[in-house]
From TrEMBL:
InterPro entries: DNA-bd_HTH_TetR-type_CS, Homeodomain-like_sf, HTH-type_TetR-like_transc_reg, HTH_TetR, Tet_transcr_reg_TetR-rel_C_sf. This is TetR/AcrR family transcriptional regulator. Residues 11-71 form the HTH tetR-type domain. It comes from the Bacteria. PROSITE patterns: HTH_TETR_1 (PS01081), HTH_TETR_2 (PS50977).
Length: 216
């Protein structure tokens, strides 16, 4: 089953329904939330919601896809502006944490993928994620070709780049960490660079006059 196409819905109606769904999911939990809860919050009619989305599962899948697009579009826009490989890695890491801090409810929803995405929509969401990831690798391709970034199995890049930041964000979103996770951007960025850069790229970075290691 494909993720519901929301592009034909008027933007104000689409935004109202999905924003209401996010608020209701955050308050009541995804499983406990009902179509009527979303209807009351969005002020849309039951007929309108069922016509455009059909089921609560379809609403959740559409919201998840919208959140993924917003997240990845921010990341990819940053990489397009990067002047070198080191800057690209830093921008990816920083944008990841900045997006989460700016959109905590949506980030929590995306972290709850098993509850948010039904089996019927899992393949479509996986495809969407894969397409964005391929775009990111394509943007990084020049630095692979220049020998600045290590060539690894594709499944290793996300854990090496965002693994520690992801864990930090989970703790912050779950209330187990009070400090703003963005305070760790420089340290995490440096660690990600050391994991993904080639020996030649690391040597070049260390030899730059303006190079500074993050303070300990």
């Amino acid at each position: 089953m494909t993720t519901p196409d929301t592009t034909a819905i008027p933007l104000d109606r689409k935004s109202a329904i999905l924003a209401a769904a996010l608020a209701v999911f955050a308050e009541k939990g995804i499983e406990a939330a009902t179509i009527d809860d979303i209807r009351q919050r969005s002020l849309a009619s039951v007929g309108s919601i069922y016509h455009h989305f059909g089921t609560k599962e379809n609403i959740a899948a559409a919201l998840f896809a919208q959140g993924l697009d917003d997240y990845w579009n921010r990341l990819l826009a940053g990489v397009r502006e990067a002047g070198d490989a080191r800057a690209a890695i830093h921008i990816l890491l920083a944008t990841h944490l900045e997006w989460i801090v700016a959109r905590p409810e949506l980030a929590r929803f995306l972290f709850a993928r098993r509850q948010a995405v039904s089996p019927a929509h899992e393949q479509a969401i996986r495809q969407l994620t894969g397409d964005h990831f391929k775009t990111m690798l394509a943007l990084l391709k020049p630095w692979f070709q220049q020998g600045m970034l290590r060539r690894l199995a594709p499944e290793l890049y996300a854990p090496l780049l965002l693994g520690p930041a992801q864990e930090l964000a989970r703790n912050w979103l779950g209330g187990r960490l009070r400090d703003d996770p963005r305070a760790a951007i420089e340290e995490l960025s440096a660690a990600a660079w050391r994991s993904l850069a080639t020996d030649a790229a690391l040597a070049a970075t260390l030899s730059r006059p303006d190079h500074q290691e993050p303070s300990k």
